[in-house]
Design goal:
YdbS-like_PH; PH-domain like; alpha+beta; four-stranded antiparallel β-sheet
């Protein structure tokens, strides 16, 4: 059923099923881990039970006192709850399928959203800090979140505020956060060193470039050496004369 609903919604709302593209030869595309999806589904079922159980308790009380009201009031309420729960459950899967994190040599692109798709691109030149956050429930389900702070960004805060900030990138549901943070920091260091022009200096003055001496070079060196010898000899002859004149 989910695949059928997914096909209808992607066709209706033109939701992209492929990860966003970034220029570069070494591009890494990933989604949140399965633990993050399971964590959200458990939260959905807990929320659903917290909604249905009180309604059911009220329905039992009304059923004993006024059975007619059960059909008149509770049946429409249960129908609305069922429709909203189904939509919420499908949106969890759609949110998981449409969330992508793409890394290239120069930038990170984050895509998320179902009804409204948001794409955020962060260049590694502007990255100031990469933090790992993990609460007790996240630790239980085996994932963490990565918070990427850029120039002009603020400190940590609620995830909703982080997602809305243009200076902070939020990567949710990361199964190996330390490995991913190191990959990002390697790209940050490489991007900053490249920004200083090191790659151009390497091209202009390659350290491993072979040196080839032609006969013309050797002849020029001999002439320079002979000229220096004449200058030293001339300097040796004139220095005693100056000493004698001084005495």
């Amino acid at each position: 059923m989910y695949q059928g609903v997914w096909a209808v919604l992607t066709g209706l709302f033109r939701v992209p099923s492929q990860p966003p593209s970034l220029p570069g030869s070494q591009v890494l595309a990933m989604r949140p881990c399965d633990g993050w999806l399971f964590y959200r589904k458990v939260g959905f079922w807990i929320g659903l039970l917290a909604t249905v159980l009180p309604i059911t308790a009220v329905g039992l009380v009304i059923l004993i006192t006024r059975p007619v009201l059960v059909v008149a009031v509770l049946v429409p309420v249960f129908a609305v709850v069922l429709v909203m729960s189904l939509a919420s459950y499908v949106s969890i899967h759609l949110g998981y399928d449409t969330t992508w994190y793409v890394l290239s040599e120069r930038a990170l692109r984050i895509r998320r959203g179902v009804w409204t798709i948001h794409e955020t691109t962060i260049t590694f030149d502007n990255v100031q800090n990469v933090k790992i956050t993990q609460g007790p429930l996240q630790r239980l389900f085996g994932f963490s979140d990565l918070v990427i702070e850029t120039a002009g960004g603020g400190g940590g805060g609620p995830h909703q505020q982080l997602e809305q900030s243009s200076h902070v990138g939020l990567l949710q549901g990361v199964e190996a956060p330390k490995v991913l943070r190191e990959q990002i920091m390697e790209r940050v260091r490489a991007s900053r060193s490249a920004g200083l022009g090191d790659e151009h200096d390497t091209e202009l003055h390659p350290a491993s470039a072979p040196t080839s001496w032609t006969p013309a070079h050797l002849e020029a060196l001999r002439e320079i050496a002979a000229h220096m010898a004449r200058l030293r000899a001339r300097s040796g002859r004139t220095e005693p004369d100056r000493n004698l004149q001084g005495s």
